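agent> fetching stored inputs for the zinc ion docking request
agent> found them:
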Amino acid sequence: MALGGITDGVSNLELTAAFAAIANSGYYTKPSFYTKILDHDNKVLLKNKPTGRQVMKESTSFLLTSAMEDVVKKGTGSSVNFNEISMPIAGKTGTTSDDNDLWFAGYTPYYTAAIWSGYDNNKTQTNKSYQKIIWRDVMQRIHEEYKLESKPFTKPDSIVAADICTKSGKLAVDGLCDKYIGGSTVKTEYFARGTVPTEKCDIHVKVTICKDSKQLAGEYCPESSLEEKVYLIKEEKSPTKDTPYILPTKTCTKHNSKTKNTPTNTPFPPSNNNTGDIAPTTPPYDNGANNGNNNGSNGNNGNNGNGNNGSGNNGGTDTITGDGTETNDETDIEFYYDYSQ
Ligand SMILES: [Zn+2]
Ligand SMILES: [Zn+2]
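agent> prediction call returned; pasting tokens
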């Protein structure tokens, strides 16, 4: 689709015929100003048979129509919507340098019209919307007088609809793209058959985060602080609207082995510890030794910590080694890809 100014311009007739071809499933009809001439006895003297040809695929014209419906629904052409009756409208505004030329060319499932406004001597216009108002008033009136019912633009069989993710441009994934913390990015789009994306969105990811630190949940985060959220995977050089929703990279620093509460039922020190020359020095399981290092945190984590420690130790995921340190084979980050769709 060519946009912008042209050296020798384009006539209103040419532009209207071009838009009418899009409206008419890609079939161009050469403009004519009469269909037949009759004499006073209604005898046909001249008949003007329309000539035309297919200039674009049906699917292409439908996709253009769908895109230009958005112009009217939520874009620069919204003021052309009819006041009294509801009718699908597709169209495009056009502007040349310094607002010397202003266009609106558009169509309904019934009629096509294009309005140009401007001065013969190429002067700047200050009212930049009256071409749209003229278009609306003319078109509304003809639809009203013929009592034309609202109907959607015809969708050819060569067009299919698919739910895509507007962030990745790939197929939307249930439970991810629609649950994105930045708002659902799922949009139903039309495609020419055979051009629907085949890959699923791979930049929305569900992770467990720690509510207290807003970082990725780590092994020490209490159960009650865990929350599943869908983030965006994206690299940025400077902040954008996406920035607040990008996947955190750090694991929770607020909860660590030192903030973890002391389990009361863990036997410590292990009975065999006193066989060596070196006494255990690691403090996590020794309240007395721990107090100095861990002021404040102990109090905060008392409630949450018990539950967490209990399940961790009893469930066998944590291991207390002979030297009193703790190991844990679990990974800190859990990715949940739901490709069940
Ligand atoms: Zn997505
Ligand atoms: Zn945490």
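agent> quick read of the result: The chain has two domains: 12-145, 157-274+281-289+330-341.
agent> awaiting further instructions
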